[in-house]
Specification:
Shape: globular
Number of helices: 9
Radius of gyration: 20 Å
Number of strands: 0
Structural class: mainly alpha
Largest sheet: none
Length: about 240
């Protein structure tokens, strides 16, 4: 697995460098656009997870790299696990880029003569830090979930054919259940858990709660990617290249 992981990282090395620089720029623009530091780290965490799945699969079809790779002393299991290791690494890089970009903008905002409201919004306060960590936690679940959904399709069909299947599968998994629940009145059954949800969010707003939420989200992301990797391995073993 380690060899396959290093091969994947070598292939996308330049892309990762460009993506990291772009991520810091996007983080700064997001902070300025929202006039808040809270959203940028989460946005980049989610984006990098998804881009990890998309970019690595796109490289497979360039110059028949996916086929040539099978002639190397790498098993299909190593290839799959190495790919998921790269996706997880990119997700963490996105989180780091978002936090670095937000911190840099906060330091710049503190040194400039900005209006008091904007200076407070862009200040690196304890509330802003907690909000940024929570946004990372929530978006790590979303980004890893999307990557976990997409990657088995890429391994089974390849990047070109997968683009035909992913929209339909996404609609079936996410939109259709909500439409059915709304039409049948099933959403009313969730009204009873509103108090529980409020209590959970009240806990998350504390320093301990936001730390726990980040740890839980990373565990959930690892579970998503682990289950997806097991599925991808089964599909990739049956695929003829």
């Amino acid at each position: 697995m380690k060899r396959a992981y290093l091969v994947e990282m070598t292939i996308i090395r330049d892309y990762v460098r460009q993506l990291f620089g772009l991520g810091i720029f996007v983080a700064a623009c997001t902070c300025l656009g929202m006039q808040s530091l809270t959203g940028a780290p989460g946005v980049l965490t989610c984006m990098y997870f998804i881009m990890g799945a998309l970019a690595t699969s796109a490289y497979d079809e360039q110059n028949n790299w996916g086929t040539y790779r099978l002639t190397m002393p790498l098993s299909r299991r190593d290839i799959v696990l190495g790919r998921y290791g790269v996706i997880a690494t990119l997700g963490l890089i996105g989180m780091a880029a978002g936090l670095i970009g937000a911190l840099a903008l906060s330091l710049i905002a503190g040194a400039l003569p900005l209006p008091a409201d904007l200076k407070m919004a862009l200040g690196f306060s304890a509330d802003n830090v907690q909000a940024m960590v929570f946004s990372c936690a929530l978006c790590a679940i979303v980004g890893s979930g999307v990557a976990a959904l997409e990657e088995p399709i890429y391994f089974r069909f390849g990047q070109t054919k997968a683009t035909q299947w992913i929209p339909m599968i996404s609609v079936c998994l996410f939109i259709c259940p909500m439409v059915i629940l709304g039409a049948t009145g099933g959403l009313d059954n969730f009204a009873g858990i509103a108090d529980t949800i409020r209590n959970i969010f009240a806990f998350i707003e504390t320093p301990l709660g936001v730390t726990v939420s980040l740890a839980v989200s990373l565990c959930v992301a690892a579970i998503f990617l682990g289950v997806s990797a097991a599925i991808s391995l089964k599909l990739y073993e049956r695929r003829e290249l």
